[in-house]
Amino acid sequence: FAGLADVSISEDIPVEGEITVPVGSRSPDEVYSTLDEPVKDTIMRDLKAVGKKFVHVMYPKKSSALLRDWDLWGPLVLCVSLALMLQGGSADSKDDGGPQFAEVFVIIWFGAVVITLNSKLLGGTISFFQSLCVLGYCVLPLTVAMLVCRLVLLAGSGTVSFIIRLIVVVAMFGWSTLASTAFLADSQPPNRKALVVYPIFLFYFVISWMILTFTPQ
Amino acid sequence: QGGGSAVIDMENMDDTSGSSFEDMGEMHQRMKEEEEEEAEGEAGAAEEEDGEFLGMKGLRGQLGRQVADQMWQVGKRQASRAFSLYANIDILRPYFDVEPIQVRARLLESMIPVKMINFPQKIAGELYGPLMLVFTLVAILLHGMKTSDTIIREGTLMGTAIGTCFGYWLGVSSFIYFLAYLCNAQITMVQMLSLLGYGLFGHCITLFVTYNIHFHSLFYIFWLGVGGLSTLRMVAVLVSRTVGHTQRLILCGTLAALHMLFLLYLHFAYHKVVEGILDTLEGPNVPPFQRVARDIPVVSNAVLNTTAKAIALTL
């Protein structure tokens, strides 16, 4: 141990370590390998995880399942279905007045990125992808609202249908905002919650506005 | 012999930003790697250190692995350092350090012109409020465009709204900052961005009201009243920071003109009610209004037309 005499440890770094050396396996992946299982099991496991998160969004309790194992499958599915349903709604058949697929896609993802950056800059403790995951999953009520709006529009497009659509969209918008606030606001210092909630409110407001003003050809 | 690890320790000491979450994790990771490396080094002490140093002596099989491992560690460290330097949003963190009460106070203050222009007024260099105001303006603009059935040919509604608002905020801020540099005014870029951003609060209020209540004269009252107040505040703050009459005139004249004209543009370019009123009042003498299918260069023409007709109407 002659070499140890010259080793210099700066005083800034706290010297810490464990006395007991862990005897167990170093990498937990070696214990449980998912490579050999049938594809159906893999898909079902992922689908179940996504489904569980959907349930968490519809009944927002303070659970950390959404945050702990984040995934972006659910937001992708929701975003694509919302963009598909919003496509093709325009006043004039020649010019495109309604949002295109790419527009909706870009709005949702860039909006989510901006809100995440904002919450991080305000001192949030949540990570980038966790926040994206929560914001994406909370688009679920608005997707349901879009579905309902399309069904109502099939029946007719008068004042009554507009009022029904308005009520549904406003209710779902409130639900989305409350659900995402329940997950995201906890990660902020308590006196700055309003600063984080406002951009989320704007984001879902813009999406709700796109849904409400959708008129099919 | 311990010189190798001491050098590595010194390299680590350069980069302790420590303020963000990721940096702490990275530092811990580095320390863990150092400990592992040191433990490994001590295990085969004498031979391996000789081998590393000269590259010729020592056990050949282990030498290659050791060198490759060392290179990979150094490369990874450099890459993560570069990443944490450039992708570090901590640079922007001080500009977002506000409380809701402060934001509300600044919003209200942005409508109150200061009276004391003899010594420099304080401007808070904060970016949260202005950014949120720009996004709110985008949302209000979208609402106005939708209710007026604006059809944009080579672009999208959302793209136009975002481009207009952000382009105004960033572009006019930079231009006024450049003018301020020429006129020797004491203002930094962040302060200018903040000042102009808060000045958009008046625009938001005006457009929010007049996109919903379609009264022609109501818009003019709001334009002069609310728009005028926020412009006066910005002008007063700039005047307090500039010396010399000509410079003050240039700077504040430009800012006032751009700010008021922007509000005028936002109202007339995206609102169809004006067209309806003008048509019914002037009858068949109205030349065809180029609003329906609009490419961006035609917009200025349309604005000129409407302002000319509006002025003719009021006279």
Automatic annotation (TrEMBL), chain A:
Localization, UniProt: Golgi apparatus membrane; Membrane
Alphabetical keyword list: Membrane, Transmembrane, Transmembrane helix
InterPro entries per UniProt: Yip1/4-like, Yip1_dom
Transmembrane segments: 70-89, 101-122, 134-156, 162-184, 196-215
Listed Pfam families: Yip1 (PF04893)
Family membership: Belongs to the YIP1 family.
Domain Yip1: 59-210
Coiled-coil region list: none
Classification via PANTHER family: GOLGI MEMBRANE PROTEIN YIP1 (PTHR21236), PROTEIN YIPF6 (PTHR21236:SF1)
Gene that encodes the chain: Yipf6
CC per GO annotation: Golgi membrane; trans-Golgi network
Membrane topology: Multi-pass membrane protein
Protein's name in the database: Protein YIPF
GO annotation terms (biological process): endoplasmic reticulum to Golgi vesicle-mediated transport
UniProtKB/TrEMBL annotation, chain B:
Membrane topology: Multi-pass membrane protein
GO annotation, cellular component aspect: Golgi apparatus; plasma membrane
Primary localization: membrane
Superkingdom classification of source: Eukaryota
Keywords: Cell membrane, Cytoplasm, Differentiation, Glycoprotein, Golgi apparatus, Membrane, Transmembrane, Transmembrane helix
GO biological process, one term: cell differentiation
Compositionally skewed regions (Acidic residues) per UniProt: 34-51
Region (Disordered) residue spans: 1-51
Compartment list: Cell membrane; Cytoplasm; Golgi apparatus, cis-Golgi network membrane
Record field: transmembrane: 127-145, 157-183, 195-214, 220-240, 249-270
Function description: Involved in the maintenance of the Golgi structure. May play a role in hematopoiesis.
PANTHER family per UniProt: NATURAL KILLER CELL-SPECIFIC ANTIGEN KLIP1 (PTHR15627), PROTEIN YIPF3 (PTHR15627:SF14)
Family to which this protein belongs: Belongs to the YIP1 family.
Protein's name according to its UniProt entry: Protein YIPF3
Gene that encodes it: Yipf3
